[in-house]
Amino acid sequence: MNKVTDRLYNGIVKENPTFVQMLGMCPTLAVTTSAINGAGMGLATTVILTLSNLFISLLRRFIPDKVRIPAFIVIIASFVTLVQFVMQAYIPGLYNSLGIFIPLIVVNCIILGRAESYASKNSVIPSIFDGVGMGLGFTVGLTAIGIVRELLGSGTAFGIRIMPDSVAPISIFVLAPGAFFVLAFLVALINKINIGKAKKQGTEPELCKLADCASCQNTMCQGSREAKEV
Amino acid sequence: MNIILLAISAAFVNNVVLCQFMGICPFLGVSKKISTAAGMGGAVIFVMTIASTVAALIYNFILVPLNLTYLNTIVFILVIAALVQFVEMFLKKAVPALYQALGVFLPLITTNCAVLGVTLTNVQKDYNIGESIVNGIFTAVGFAVAIIILAGIREKIEKNDVPESFKGAPIVLISAGLMAIAFMGLSGLIR
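C-alpha cells for the assembled complex are given below, as produced in the milestone run.
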C-alpha cells in the first residue's frame, strides 16, 4: 500500500510531468484552449499510460532488450488507436476538438519515458499506479493551464461564466500565442519559488532548464543531449 | 495554382510550430545557436519529405486496398521510426559529409510529433500523393524558418538583462509567443 501512494505522490506532485519535468509540451500548448479540453486530453493520456504500463510490465521478461523500443511503440500505438475509437464513438465533441492530438499521444515523451524508465523494470502493481500517478499529474497540469487560458480568454471556466460581463475577455489567450505566454508565466512563477527556496537554504537555485531539453532524460529525446554538444 | 496555395499555407499561414504546436520539443531544445537550428531544420526537411512520400504511398497502395486504414497511426509511427534508422545508416555510408551535418539530429526526429502529425494530416484532409508530398516538404520548410528565426532571437537575448525568474525557458516561450502573433498576421493571406 505504501508503494502505491508513493507512486501516486511521485507522479502528481514530486515529478509532475508538466510543471517539474516539462514533458509532452506539444499537447500542453495545443489543447489547453479550455479547461474541459485540457482535462479530456489529460484523462485520455492517463488511460493510455496506465494500460501501456500494465502491458509493458507484464511483458518485460519476454521483450528482447534490443527491440524493446519498437515493441513499446507498437503497444502504445495500439492503445492509442483503441482509445481514439472509444472517444470517437462516445464523446465525439471532445474527439473533434482534440483532433489530431489524440493519435499524436503515441509520440508523447511521458508515455515512452515511463515505459522505459519504470514499467520495463518494475512489477505490475507499482507500474499501474505509476501510470495513474503520472497521468493524473499531467491532467492536473493541463487543466490548470486550461483554466487560466479559458478564464482570461473567454471569461469562463469549464464553460461556466465566472468573470463579470464588464470585464472584456482577452481573446489572444485562447489563440496560439496565448499558450506560449501562459506557460512562460507559469514557469517563471515556479522559477521564482525555487529561487526563494534556494536563497533561504543558501544553495544555488535550480532554474527550469526546458530550453536545453535537459528534462528529456529518456530515450525519446536522447538526441537532444548529443545535439547540445555540437 | 492549388499546389502553390497549399505550399504557402503549409509553410507560413498554418505554420507547424507556431499555429499547430507540433515539434515544440526540438523547437525549444535545439534553438540556442543559428548553426544548430539550421542543421535541425535541414534534417527535418530531409526526413519529412521522405516520410510523407513513403507514408502516402503505403496508405494509398497498401492500407486502402486492404481496408486497413484504421491502423494508420500504428503503421505510420513504425514506418517513420524504421525510416529514420535507415536514413541514418544510408547517410553514414553514402554521404558522410551530410551525415556530419545532420547526423546528431536524426535520432531526435523519430519522435518529433510534427513528422507523424504531417502524415496523419495528409490522410485526414484526403490529400492525394502529390499534395501529400508538397504538404510534407513545405510544412518542414515552415519548421525550419521558425526554428532559425527563434535561434536568431535567442542569440540576441543572450546579451540582454533578463529578470532572474524569466531566464531560460520563460523568455524563450515569450519570444515564441511574439513570433506566433507575427505569424497570425499572415492568416488573411489564404481563405
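Chain A has one domain: 2-201. The longest strand of chain A covers residues 156-157. Further analysis is deferred to the final report.
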